[in-house]
Amino acid sequence: xxxxxxxxxxxxxxxxxxxxxxxxxxxxxxxxxxxxxxxxxxxxxxxxxxxxxxxxxxxxxxxxxxxxxxxxxxxxxxxxxxxxxxxxxxxxxxxxxxxxxxxxxxxxxxxxxxxxxxxxxxxxxxxxxxxxxxxxxxxxxxxxxxxxxxxxxxxxxxxxxxxxxxxxxxxxxxxxxxxxxxxxxxxxxxxxxxxxxxxxxxxxxxxxxxxxxxxxxxxxxxxxxxxxxxxxxxxxxxxxxxxxxxxxxxxxxxxxxxxxxxxxxxxxxxxxxxxxxxxxxxxxxxxxxxxxxxxxxxxxxxxxxxxxxxxxxxxxxxxxxxxxxxxxxxxxxxxxxxxxxxxxxxxxxxxxxxxxxxxxxxxxxxxxxxxxxxxxxxxxxxxxxxxxxxxxxxxxxxxxxxxxxxxxxxxxxxxxxxxxxxxxxxxxxxxxxxxxxxxxxxxxxxxxxxxxxxxxxxxxxxxxxxxxxxxxxxxxxxxxxxxxxxxxxxxx
Length: 492
What we know:
The chain has about 500 residues and is an alpha/beta fold. It has 19 helices and 19 strands. The strands form 2 sheets. Strands 2-10-19-18-17-16-15-14-11-12-13 form an 11-stranded mixed beta sheet, sandwiched between helices.
């Protein structure tokens, strides 16, 4: 992502509604709002000239609001630089900054229906931006279709028209931009899928709104070390292995031990001092043939588990990868929950509670120490009502589930959302596409479990774990498998 000045916090996410309040606060503080519009339009023109120096005609699509005003400024500046700039769209509402921009850069404003693609066209989409949360009109939908059919590049101002800045979902017909130029702060729609793809390359630009005004109660961020660096595990020369955390990973039966091994390996490579696989006795020999630094502890039933859990040196638990027995998964989870120690539930650990969601909500009271790591299908099984509500963004759904289960939700996907019961949420936008491979989720569960075992709070451990997971995938490279991924983890 490009940006103009380091003063911008490129990790903060603000809703379109909050961005409107920030704009209003800037105007009320005495800042010249038209001056802000001029700077915004100048950034748009600069992006076009920088990335499309061969442009033959700049097609400026202007809406009736301030987004359209940015377009008028950009069109006027492009024309002054020698580019043929033709404006199409709607006359601005009278009396505002957009009308002032229209007057400052006079010229024809042609109907949208008149635009027909030419070779060398580049569109500046300044129709609506982030505030639109309804389908675009039929005439605009037809224009979008013409642009897509012709392959005309699009530079979106704030957000591609037709894309919700709140949810990242198209509301109907929607531009797919090559570049998106936004100002002051990112919106959720810039990072949530498919919005992130539809925005193309992001340019977050400083137009002069003071940092003190770019504040929000939305409690949303792009996942970034600033969210968890202060909580990273501490190390010192006098530490011993138990001081660095003892992670327990539960294994399934003889035929399904691979997922637990992946989680355990990831946990060890993430910095836990010890990792033990708790396995059915029948799987002991199979596991022993694969393990060296990772220990084993056979657990036959709840009674044996209860006895072992009296060992206070067991720091955190991962249950679910390849576990298989859903009834035993529920009973083991209840036993572990009673210890008051942190737990990661993944895979079969999640499926086990699909029909017992009330039980899961009761098991982990108090400070959040449960981390749930569902992919889309598992989330739907746990929270079908949230998954089926089209008015909710992925952030909304993750927050709702986090509150329901008093758990940190790691709602996986290309736009993994991490949400805490207190409302904090982070969107991860840096993971490579090749993380979508079998066993990748088992590795993630092990990383998060390891960080919990080392004393990190649940939300920070989840944010850090998701980041370490993506970084390991980048190091492993295209064509990696989950074993490669686990081997490329570096401790926080």
